[in-house]
């Protein structure tokens, strides 16, 4: 099946389209007769220059299968003015989609989807639930403000990561997934991300990620309804919708920074040396296309049945930034008895190298100074061996601790809570930022802040460490705290050392 791609319209193509859309004539001054001509280039140029003020219907996206928006299933081929989506399904093979399916129908539909991946070595049942949630997301994504990234990882190559990604795409689009290679250069990555979003592919896979991935651009795309950046070779800034479903694959996938809180990972473990030698009871790349129509109907039956049941409240813990997705895709699966796909977050966030380093730093700093403010230099000179080791890991430079680099690292992760602790600025001492470790009371920031109870109350007298004080910590008089004259303590190159 050939998919449609959204491409920018240039002047020459617009002249051709306008010429075919109307009859253009020019008056011959000598004969006083009109003759047919192509659309004048000036008209095409003027039309392009109107950017955003054309008065034409907006193309919000392309769908390859019937899709759900606001609980309603759209299955008519062509452009739908109510959604702005063009459904590229000329053969319309999806006529068996139920409008008000029962829960029993949904349970049978779920079994059909589970049958597709029954031979894959998922580590736990929740990992299979993550895969199903990724598949269901493709049918609801156009109606969701945001959706998480879905990872597929394994302990060794040849386990079936790419095949699982392809199966999602074959069911949702009729073809194997569009693949984007992972690059280390952040600027190059931003250009690639913008380019693939402009093409309008509904499913995009970032393949063979071999290092901890912490892309700020990817994190922004996952949680925003539009993404804006400068297109290579153009002076103008391009804004594109972010309605693609993203999949990441790799062996022993690891995510860091903000991205680690925006991904759900399905884990595979073949428990054998050569997983590529395993046999399946069917050729999935041949079987799934043959049964695509019924698998599409199964996906929409699951979503539709939950909506038809009036979306019962299941009391699920919030998944910040992905409320719409959680209220439909996640809730529909849990309603049918599947493990909550968000249970997979614990494995991902626990393997975040930034969280591990920050947690070790906070614990070591707390063990050395409690909540007494210190500069990085003071921490190096008077802190314990464990603290110096953690500082060396994050800011090592030729075997030595780079104070400026360490200060910038602390500034980057200031306020992030790990195991009930966080770093907080406490002023400036001799042109260096004073840093204090603050104990956060349980529940103050909610689930996403990674707080724990380990450090919340730890005092010989049994009282809270904060002891009823607010969190503007006192500092010994010898520190003579003052604000940086250049940045007022916000952390410039001059004071972050």
Written overview of the protein:
The protein has 497 residues and is an alpha/beta fold. Helix content is 35%, strand content 16%. The protein has three domains: 11-87, no CATH class; 103-350, P-loop containing nucleotide triphosphate hydrolases (Rossmann fold, 3-Layer(aba) Sandwich); 359-479, no CATH class. The protein has 15 helices and 18 strands. Strands 9-10-13-8-14 form a five-stranded parallel sheet. α4 (125-140) packs parallel to α5 (161-173), α5 (161-173) packs parallel to α8 (284-290) and α9 (292-308) crosses α10. Mean pLDDT is 84; it is low at 442-497.
Morphology: globular
SS-based class: alpha/beta
If you consult CATH, what is the topology of the largest domain? Answer: Rossmann fold
Please summarize the sheet with the most strands. Answer: 5 strands, parallel
By CATH reckoning, the class of the largest domain would read Alpha Beta
Radius of gyration: 28 Å
* Number of distinct helices: 15
Low-confidence spans: 442-497
Work out the number of β strands. Answer: 18
Helix percentage range: 25-40%
């Amino acid at each position: 099946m050939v998919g449609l791609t959204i491409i920018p319209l240039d002047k020459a193509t617009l002249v051709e389209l306008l010429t075919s859309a109307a009859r253009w004539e020019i008056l011959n001054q000598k004969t006083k007769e009109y003759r047919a001509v192509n659309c004048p280039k000036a008209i095409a140029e003027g039309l392009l220059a109107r950017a955003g003020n054309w008065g034409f219907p907006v193309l919000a996206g392309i769908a390859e299968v019937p899709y759900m928006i606001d609980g309603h299933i759209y299955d008519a081929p062509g452009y739908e003015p109510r959604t702005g989506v063009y459904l590229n399904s000329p053969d319309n093979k999806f006529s068996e989609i139920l409008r008000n399916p029962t829960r029993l129908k949904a349970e049978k539909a779920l079994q059909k989807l589970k049958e597709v991946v029954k031979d894959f070595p998922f580590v736990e049942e929740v990992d299979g639930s993550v895969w199903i949630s990724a598949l269901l997301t493709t049918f609801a994504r156009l109606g969701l403000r945001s959706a998480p990234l879905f990872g597929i990882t394994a302990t060794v190559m040849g386990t079936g990561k790419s095949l699982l990604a392809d199966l999602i795409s074959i069911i949702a689009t009729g073809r194997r997934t569009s693949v984007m290679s992972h690059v280390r250069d952040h600027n190059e990555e931003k250009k690639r991300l913008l380019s693939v979003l402009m093409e309008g592919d509904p499913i995009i896979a970032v393949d063979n990620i071999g290092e901890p991935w912490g892309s700020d651009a990817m994190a922004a795309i996952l949680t925003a309804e539009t993404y804006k950046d400068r297109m290579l070779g153009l002076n103008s800034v391009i804004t594109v919708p972010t309605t693609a479903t993203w999949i990441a694959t790799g062996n022993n996938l690891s995510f860091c920074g903000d991205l680690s809180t925006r991904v759900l990972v399905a884990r595979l473990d073949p428990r054998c040396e050569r997983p590529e030698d395993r046999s399946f009871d069917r050729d999935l790349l041949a079987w799934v296309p043959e049964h695509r129509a019924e698998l599409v109907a199964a996906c929409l039956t699951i979503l539709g049945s939950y909506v038809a049941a009036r979306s019962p409240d299941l009391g699920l813990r919030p998944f910040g930034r992905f409320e719409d997705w959680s209220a439909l895709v996640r809730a529909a699966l849990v309603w049918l008895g599947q493990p909550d796909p968000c249970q997979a977050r614990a494995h991902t966030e626990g393997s975040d190298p930034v969280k591990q380093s920050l947690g070790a730093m906070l614990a070591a700093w707390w063990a050395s100074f409690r909540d007494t403010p210190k500069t990085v230099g003071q921490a190096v000179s008077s802190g314990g061996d464990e603290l110096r080791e953690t500082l060396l890991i994050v800011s090592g430079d030729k075997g030595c601790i780079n104070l400026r680099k360490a200060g910038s690292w602390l500034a980057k992760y200031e306020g992030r809570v790990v195991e009930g602790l966080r770093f907080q600025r406490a002023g400036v001492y001799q042109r260096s930022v004073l840093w204090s470790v603050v104990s956060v009371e349980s529940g103050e920031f909610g689930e996403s802040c990674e707080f724990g109870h380990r450090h919340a109350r730890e005092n010989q007298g049994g009282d809270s460490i904060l002891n009823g004080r607010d969190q503007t910590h006192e500092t010994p008089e010898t520190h003579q705290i003052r604000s940086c004259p250049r940045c007022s303590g916000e952390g410039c190159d001059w004071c972050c050392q």
